[in-house]
Amino acid sequence: MSAVREGLPEGRYGRSADERADRKLKIVGSVLGVALLAMVGWFGYDYIAGQRISAEVIKFDLSADDRVQVHLEVRKDRDAKGSCTLRALAENGGEVGHKDVRFDQAEERIDQVVTVRTTAEATSAELLGCTSE
User: Fold this and answer.
1) Which has more pLDDT, 25 or 133?
2) Are residues 55 and 74 in contact, defined by beta-carbon separation less than 8 angstroms?
């Protein structure tokens, strides 16, 4: 009597086609994962390193009906030049004042009180953002 085998003997003829396909998929997935991680890292570094001017509103004074005084702190590279945009808001959220402030000083940290003229009584002031040249 002879026995009938249903498959090839283990280890005799190398890897099966399924094992080779699984290995290729793992390699391709690993390469794509590393590439995606590197791309996200590069974009993150470029975003952080590209920000040459950052600012923060320390406080604002609403004591007058026709203006708001904003205490602005700017941090930048010594040689960076640029501007920051401030706006004053009314109680209903509408904009009642707007001002662009330039910073050309050769300093890394600038504290400055800026006056924003308003068309109506303001209830708050905010920093919209800063851009460098």
Assistant:
1) 25
2) yes
What H or E segment, with its residue span, contains residue 129? strand 124-132
pLDDT tens string 74-86 = 998 888 889 999 9
For residue 93, give the 3-state DSSP assignment. coil
Rg, C-alpha atoms of the chain = 31
Distance CA 100, CA 33 (A): 43
Q: Which two structure tokens, joined as six digits, stand for 125?
A: 């002031």
Question: Residue 76 CB: number of other CB atoms within 10 A?
Answer: 22
As a whole number of angstroms, the distance between CA 117 and CA 107 comes to 27
- The yes-or-no verdict on residue 1 having pLDDT over 70 is no
CA distances from residue 25 to 16, 18, 19, 69 in whole angstroms, order as listed: 15, 11, 10, 62
From residue 120, alpha-carbon distances to 11, 88, 104 in Å are 86, 10, 31
Whole-angstrom distance, CA of residue 48 vs CA of residue 85 = 20
Q: Is 76 within 8 Å of 132 (Cβ atoms)?
A: yes
Contact 83, 93 (CB under 8 A): no
> Any idea which of 2-11, 12-21, 97-106 has the lowest mean pLDDT?
2-11
